[in-house]
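User: I'll paste a sequence; please echo it back and then give the predicted structure.

Assistant: Echoing your sequence first, then the prediction.
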Amino acid sequence: MNSIDLTNIRQAIERFLAAETTLAEEDAIYRFYASHPSGTLPADVERMRGMFAWYGAGLDESLDPVAQTASRPSVALPPLRRWQWLSVAASLAVLLTVGFSVFRPGDRVEETAYVVINGEIVTDPAIVESESMKLQAIFDRAERKFASVGATAVTAPSLEDQLDMDNPIVRDIVNRYNNFN
């Protein structure tokens, strides 16, 4: 199929698209399109003209817009001198030092519960929990005592009046007690 004309161009195109043509047949297809002016072929055959013109031009990248953008000359940056590299390294070192000194995870201020036993502050959660339970039991007994005496007493001061409510631990325990009852 070396001679291609209007009668067999469609079969040649189908074979080309199915990758069944030889190089000689492909050259014949390229010559066919080159020998017929644009607009003189049937519409279905004319539609393939651009592709075969590109192949016929030897896959000339000047016709391919993607290749045109990829082949733009690149701008060569001058190499960095030693002092420039040192200044970049020093800047990074300063940034890392400042970053780590400002954002140390161990320096976060957290509220912790504590109790004072024999003049020493204890922050162990188990000890704090047990001491607060003991204090809660004392408050419960005192409240029951005041409730039983409340009817006979003239005006018994409330438990909150007798405690130092400015102390956040005492205030927290009293609030917890009031929320439970």
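The chain has two domains: 9-69, 115-180. The chain has a mean pLDDT of 78.
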